[in-house]
Amino acid sequence: xxxxKRLSISQKQIVWAWGLLAIPIVFYVVVRFYxxxxxxxxxxxxxxxxxxxxxxxFDNYVKLFSDPTxxxxxxxxxxxxILGTPSSLLLAFVIAFHLDKLRFMHGxxxxxxxxxxxxxxxxxxxxxxxxxxxxxxxxxxxxxxxxGIPQIPFLNSTTFALPSILAPAIWAGLGFQVIIFMAGLxxxxxTYYEAARIDGISAWETLTEITIPLLKPTxxxxxxxxxxxxxxxxxQVFNMTTNDPGGPLNSTKPLVLMIYxxxxxxxxxxxxxxxxxxLFTVLLVVSLLQLRVxxxx
Amino acid sequence: xxxxxxxxxxxxxxxxxNSARRKRSQAQFIRWLLLFAGGIAMxxxxxxxxxxxxxxxxxxxxxxxxxEEPTIENYTYVLEDGRFFGWFTNSLLIATITTICNxxxxxxxxxxxxxxxxxxxxxIFIAILSTLMIxxxxxxxxxxxxxxxxxxxxxxxxxxxxxxxxxxGTFLMKQFxxxxxxDFLEAARIDGLNELQIWWTVAMPLVRPALAAxxxxxxxxxxxxxxxxxxxxxxxxxxxLPVGLTTFSVEAQVxxxxxxxxxxxxxxxxxxxxxxFQRYIIRGVVMAGLKG
Lengths: 297, 292
Description:
Number of strands of chain B: 0
Number of strands of chain A: 2
CATH class of the largest domain in chain A: Mainly Alpha
Distance between the termini of chain A: 58 Å
Mean pLDDT of chain B: 89
Radius of gyration of chain B: 27 Å
Largest interface: A-B, 90 and 86 residues
Low-confidence stretches of chain A: none
Helix content of chain A: over 70%
Number of helices of chain A: 14
Oligomer: heterodimer
Strand content of chain A: under 5%
Structural class of chain B: mainly alpha
CATH architecture of the largest domain in chain A: Orthogonal Bundle
CATH topology of the largest domain in chain A: MetI-like fold
Number of domains of chain A: 2
Number of helices of chain B: 13
Strand order of the largest sheet of chain A: 1-2
Helix content of chain B: over 70%
Distance between the termini of chain B: 69 Å
Order of helices and strands of chain B: HHHHHHHHHHHHH
Shape of chain B: flat
């Protein structure tokens, strides 16, 4: 205590800062940095949890890149991204753009769109799974049948299953995107629109020349945020295909499900770790690429 | 003559204005109608889930939203099973403790990084921020190994420890502490408060909206978390609600009214929270989204 009292104010600050940060630093080192290093290390080893960890160099990666299932899964993961991000953003923008111009029951309608965001992905995966069942169980096929339209084998077909699983993911995230878009729209000064009106600029041009360029930071944020979400899709796939995880014929299996299978069903820890490193790299590259492209535009 | 002329043109003008206004209000009405219909469509899965949870099996395949013979039998069946009660308490406990930890630690770290000058500040900030880029899925295998080495598998601590602090929360709080004037803290220091007291009694009350936003995000995230609880728990007593719901639904197979009841039980609490705190939640989401 005597030593502490003799310190200058700025020295005291240093003591306090490091003292308060001690526990968090231990946490970040033990629960974030060490596991990251361990995952990377493990990806160069072979281990089934029981024996010893053996170094195998790049074997796991070689095995992975020559595994046709991996490429199928890799393709699926990008399909989730490529279908999910643009469609959800476009939908969210259209809704936000019009909802922003609405006064009557604005709050109620906004709440309707936002409500799905508050649900749990697992619970909603089961609700949607029920919707997708064939006649006479599923809501969608029952509705199609009433109008005499042929049945769609949603979750049982290799073509329809992936979009069918994607739909609840888009649905649940839409409200969040609408809210963020509306906040972005509100932040655009009204004077721009008044100037545009005086200059007699058409509504379409106002949208493409004023609204969208000024909304760019919001768009960049949402593109990166939702892309990461779609690339990491798991809960919906796992729960909607419990009888054949990632099926039919691996047509819905994303990278995270492959990682889960490899690690916790086959206990091939090194191979699974290599897959997580690939996932990490993909996420990093995709977000950096998007940030770069969107900034340049 | 001249007078009636101007009257005539002004009449025409006002008629024109009226028709323009009518057109605009028509467009506005169509806009409202479409958005409202879309909003109703958005909540249909939730409505169907709730309505089916009050139906007898024979009525499940009817698409009517209001059950002809409403029953709470599904709920009594699911609750008598007993497991749901345990899963519900587990989820509630885990989400609550994790939320408290995040609110305390993330704001403390954010505060220190924002308001203190000390060597290494920038490096620590960047180090914490960089963990945002590491996906949970990359860490679950090392976390699992760690948990099995320390005997944390199948325990509350095992489920909770990875989420006790988040870089997102730290960054969010740091942004908000920027808005707290340094003079306030200086004044408190002169009044003889120690640093912890200054953080807790002076700075924290000033960022309450941000704390609320953080709490909502962390709670919702932990309430719905799936992959890590799925991996770290073995016994059904330790399951969280989402993991339990998966197990329960796989068992129930084609008894959709029971599955919908389970889904409703895990969804209703967050829906109620939303309906009560709607305004704060939406404001919090915007804050977290734009600043975080």
